[in-house]
């Protein structure tokens, strides 16, 4: 198990006590051996299937006269087989070191190390060291700041809007973190009536039936046919669609 290198002295004291307590109370190493006669017919502690005398098995002294199939001697949480049969036990279950530690201490979503500080930041169901809750792009500290989650990591509003915000199909401006948006067929619009509306008659389309042709929205087949006809109409007709340019143009 790894720990954050920037621990203060009090946190180091907590770490030493935590590690010593785990070793004393929970750490063990399984013993690979044939199932002995007195345990003939006993169920595997994990899968429940019968183990017969002489079958390959693994025992764990901290859990008494219990046996596992070798392939079943795995972490209760992640199901990974335990390297060198080293386990930590808690409430009659065996864990790898990582997931046993997480029963007692949170893990920082940024550095992936245990948190021993009294204070940490909790957001989106995860926790961070105070100094690690930063923008994924520019490393600006985000404690007390507004942010947007991007692939499970926080992003400041400036970086989000310059790097990740989708452009509105109608007005072309980025759809900011605070703006409502509507998506359809992989395209995006501001949810406001001026953008998410029929390209011909300008009827707002939020919550209404719509048709999408070449990246343009229409409230009906009638308006859609009118749009098609505009390709051969006068310049004044073309101007009706200037606010919603086609991505093909």
From TrEMBL:
Coiled coil: none annotated. InterPro entries: PET_domain, Pk/Esn/Tes, Znf_LIM. It comes from the Eukaryota. SMART domains: LIM. Residues 42-105, 106-166 form the LIM zinc-binding domain. Pfam families: LIM. The keyword Repeat applies. Residues 228-249 have a biased composition (Low complexity). This is PRIC1 protein. The gene is Prickle1_1.
